[in-house]
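Thread: "does anyone have the structure for this chain?"

Original post by V.I.:
We have the sequence but no experimental structure in hand. Need at least a predicted one for the grant figures.
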Amino acid sequence: MGTVCGDIIGLPYERPAEKRTKDYNFEAFAKRSRFSDDTVFTLTIAEWLMGERTNRRLIDLMRLYGRKYWRIGFSRTTLSFIFRKDDTPCGSNGNGAAMRVGAIGWAAQTLEEALALARQAAWVTHNTDEGVRGAQAVATAIFLNRTGHSKEEIREYIESHFGYDLSHTPEQIRPDYEFSGTCDGSVPQAICCWLYLDNYEQTIRNAVSLGGDADTQAAIAGSIAIATPGWTIPEEWYERAYAKMPEIFRQIMTEFETNILSRS
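Reply from O.Q.:
Generated one for you, tokens below.
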């Protein structure tokens, strides 16, 4: 839900370009707020994790939900994968590989498992070093966060293992930051929006107000933030985001909580 809420709040500020904002005090749940491909594939992976974790099943689930909700913001590259018959990956460097791994950080029992699952989840579409790096960095941050590691430990691990520069606060990033849909151009900034803040709402507000790929960066930052011990989604935000989700995704969330989160 940390991912879903960020996605829904951020979407009105992604496109068109004139809707992007640098204002921290933007209106949450603006008129155009709704879930996008970030939510669809996040819940797709959650369902995948509760069954046989094969590439074949993951691809089938991605196409099942992708075709059902194909109008809600998938890139042209991803749409071509969803609708074609062969399973050739897209070769993408896009941040779509990173925005959908929230559930992996919770399902994995070890860091090694989190890295392996994130690589697998990315590779079926984003079979590039950059795509895999983005997915693994986010899954790592979630896993280490929920298992009690400090922010400094997480920052040091991600910088040393993935090469991201996480030294800048959102205030330092925001003035000159421009839209990027790549992993290298958006994932480190999203992580920083969690790293230097004190609660979930601050994290989301900073991710959206970078003025970039607002829904995806808020989804990524939100997926990490909600794994922080003691952090919660504001009740009103949770209720409004939950109300915008289709029933099938609510069911997947409930099953995931029962089958996975209860053991994590």
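V.I.: this helps a lot. The two ends are 16 Å apart (CA to CA).
O.Q.: and The chain has 15 helices and no strands.
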